[in-house]
Amino acid sequence: MKEPGPHHPITITPHEGVVRVRAGGRLVAETACALVLREADYPPVLYIPREDIAADALQPNARRTHCPYKGEASYFDVAGGSAAAWSYENPFPAVARIRRHLAFYPDRVEAIEA
């Protein structure tokens, strides 16, 4: 486990406004409670609370990866499609705020409106 710091900063802040995600021809998520994770030189990522994602919109898949700063990532397929989202089920303490949130790949869903 690595800690964020000056050489690899990570910040998590509330997103102001509503976020909507469209995939598979439908609205799969809508929230006014998204978080923005900014990590080093990567583009910002919106994390959406699970309770604001349609229950039948995503299906877990077997893929897992490890981030030394955030922990083990789990992946989800859009119903009838491919891997479109991920989450950290048990994130490391430095990023604990993203627990029970999912992020969507912008290029694997129809739209992320923020």
Give the key terms:
114 residues; globular; 3-stranded antiparallel beta sheet; Metal Binding Protein, Guanine Nucleotide Exchange Factor, Chain A; single chain; mainly beta
Task: Describe, in plain words, how this protein is organized in 3D.
It comes from Methylorubrum suomiense. Pfam families: NTP_transf_9. This is DUF427 domain-containing protein. With 114 residues, the protein is mainly β. The protein has one domain: Metal Binding Protein, Guanine Nucleotide Exchange Factor, Chain A. It is globular, with a radius of gyration of 14 Å. The mean pLDDT is 95.
Give a nutshell description of this structure:
With 114 residues, the protein is mostly beta strands.
Number of helices: 0
CATH architecture: Beta Complex
Cα-to-Cα separation, first versus last residue: 31 Å
* Structural class by sheet pairing and helices: mainly beta
Task: Quote the beta fraction.
Answer: over 45%
State the total count of DSSP E strands: 10
Low-confidence segments: none
The topology string of helices and strands comes to EEEEEEEEEE
* Mean pLDDT across every amino acid position: 95
Form type: globular
Organism: Methylorubrum suomiense
Pfam family, one: NTP_transf_9
Domain DUF427: 19-107
Protein name: DUF427 domain-containing protein
List the helices and strands and how they pair.
Elements: E1 10-14, E2 19-23, E3 26-31, E4 35-39, E5 45-49, E6 58-67, E7 71-78, E8 83-88, E9 101-104, E10 111-113
Antiparallel strand pairs: 1-4, 2-3, 2-10, 4-5, 5-9, 6-7, 7-8, 8-9
